[in-house]
Amino acid sequence: MSIVHNKLEVRVNLAAIRANYRLLSGHGGRVIGVVKADAYGHGLCEVARALSQEGCETFAIGSVEEGAALRGFLRAEGIKARIVSLLGPVDSEDYPLLWEYEIIPFVGSFRQLETLAGHAARMGKGLPVSVKFDTGMARLGFTQDDLPRLVERLREAPLVRPVMASSHLATADDPASVDKVLAQAERFEAALAALAEAGFQVEANLANSAGILAHQKLRHQSQRGGIALYGANPFAGTAWEHLGRGLSPAMEVRTKIVAVHALKKGQSISYGGTYTAERDMRVAIVAAGYADAYSRGLSGKGAQMLIAGRRAPQVGRVCMQLCAADVTGIPDVRPGDWAVLLGGGGSLAISAEELAGWWGTISYEVFCLLGMNRRVFV
Ligand SMILES: *Cc1c(COP(=O)(O)O)cnc(C)c1O
């Protein structure tokens, strides 16, 4: 973001991310740090450096371009690590970048495989890849029916070297869907067996954060940990909530209060006058709005923020750069004071899951969107 147009500050606690990496690693196997989408809004390069200090040797990014940016940073820092691209190459510009920036792409279609084989043959240079299988997500990857042709094509294109095999779980965070998770695991095993039988030795990975925390059976040589690294509990609100205890939230979002004034009984506030004071109140006008990714969808949903260490309900519609909070019961609130929108520490801290609940979304989206604001690393 070139022009700072707001007062919002995203504070990222890298020590928390490091602690979460240690916690995930404690479950066994190698943990691939998923840092796609700018490390879920926490800062791609800073997070990658922090994870490498904990021994993380493999990073998963989204687009090939994001991988190229990360490789540039790692080279400048003298950090040796593997980079795998979850999205794989999409258009023709992506292909040469894989070689130039040493990116291991997820390859999940014959189209990608043939294009890679063509590039590799022209350059006379091999490329390690991760073979991506669709075991139930129905998004990307080779299916069970593709296996015979896949093995054949891999044999015919020796420069495309499968070093990894991956698949992604659709329901690992849902205690009621264990059967679906196990069915995916079974299909993945079948795919691994087909590769092994054809003589391809690969590092397998299937589990995401929820899989690592809940499913011992899904353990392979490596797992791909994302959301838990950033301290959100993938099981929040479920019977498995306890499995995510011990994770430390890494993102705090705060902004400034720009005005404090009375709202008299019967007076309405903000666009549309959707909120009317039922008693004499005091309100704080807070410098956060939908231009800062503090969604207008939070209007009238019972959202809260932390002001002077107390919970203050958001009132009226969220505007482009402003919103309002009821601070009637909170003494001595002044312009220039902080309002905490996410995090805040202590027992009253606003968790990503709680904010996501008011917002009608999940912690992942809260992080990705709020993380687009100015960041400070603490
Ligand atoms: C995002 C992603 C992950 C990480 O998932 P979390 O639920 O955040 O742990 C793992 N694998 C793939 C393919 C992904 O896209």
Automatic annotation (TrEMBL):
Pfam families: Ala_racemase_C, Ala_racemase_N. It is an enzyme of class 5 (isomerase). The modification N6-(pyridoxal phosphate)lysine is found at residue 36. Its EC number is 5.1.1.1. CDD domains: PLPDE_III_AR (cd00430). One of its GO terms (biological process) is D-alanine biosynthetic process. One of its GO terms (cellular component) is cytosol. It catalyses: L-alanine = D-alanine. Substrate binds at residues 139, 320. Belongs to the alanine racemase family. Catalyzes the interconversion of L-alanine and D-alanine. May also act on other amino acids. This is Alanine racemase. It comes from Humidesulfovibrio mexicanus.
